[in-house]
Amino acid sequence: ANVARASKEQMTRMLFESAAESAPHNYAHWVSLHDFHNQVGDVEAAHQAIITAASTAVKPADRFVSFSKLGMHFHNQKMWSPSYESFKAAHDISADEGSLIDAHSKIQTDVQAVFLGSYLCEWDFVTSLLSDVIPQLDRMREEHLAPPMHPWVSMCLPMPPPLRLAIARGFWMQQKQHAEQLLAGKYQVRTQAQAIDQWHSEHSNTKDNQLRRIRVGFSSADFKQKATAYLALSVFQHLDRSRLEVFLYASTTDAGGPPSEWRESLRQSADHLREVHDKDPVRASLMAQQDELDIMIDLDGYSNEGIRRGELIALRHAPVTVAWFVYMSTLGNDENDYIVA
């Protein structure tokens, strides 16, 4: 299967490259080649293809798409300044040729420009753009459309609270649908009523009131040498372990060699430290389900995008779910019961 997949990928690559080389000034061929290289993870080839696409594009709409894709390419490589300049170039094209640019694509590009401009302290540009972007996003909310902005970005921008909630809710619903597709047929978690019934059943014949410990899980991408771990550790160390069985779900490695002192301290502060950073979403979810948690506490919210285990929070993995610590805004998540703020 791997050989067949590699052969198919090689053949597809040859077809795209042949098409681009046979018509070197055809913008569409270079965009298709970029998308292919991006999909298979060939970063350098994707970069060269989209640079060529941007230089060959003539129509305003094509130039807009080229610079938008170039901005996202730089963004994925964490090259913030080139990414900002690319999205800003796309914005300038759409400002001059607005009637020729797809409205949804335009607002998505402007949102990226706002985010990166804020990160790079380009306040004059951000302020001028926000006066247009926020009303557009609010109109989308009124039309019951999901505003295309990441909740983490919305958290630090001035906007009406209903819009902030709509952004978070739209993002959660996308993640929930994705998790449901991944875990189809492999997801079953007790409801609160089922958990209470199980608790009473387990302890109906106990002697000397020896109750099972409450199983509490904490999920985070920051269980390593970071401020979150340092502060959370002081809480974990004071939990009553005679009453609580503590599970930590670490979605990142303790990078840089052997386990750090902090990682080991976290391990000692819990009954179980689950390494889920090397697990696919299905295995990570099944691990949490098999632990039969009573309470799941998420320390990430919508921070740490790309490394946190979103499936553990997008879908309920315990009868009681709690958001705590890093993320300082609404989650828009119907599966979350409490926020510790």
UniProtKB/TrEMBL annotation:
The keyword Transferase applies. Keywords: Repeat, TPR repeat, Transferase. Residues 121-340 form the O-GlcNAc transferase C-terminal domain. InterPro entries: OGT, OGT/SEC/SPY_C. One of its GO terms (molecular function) is protein O-acetylglucosaminyltransferase activity. It comes from the Eukaryota. Pathway: Protein modification; protein glycosylation. GO terms for biological process: protein O-linked glycosylation. This is O-GlcNAc transferase C-terminal domain-containing protein. It comes from Octactis speculum.
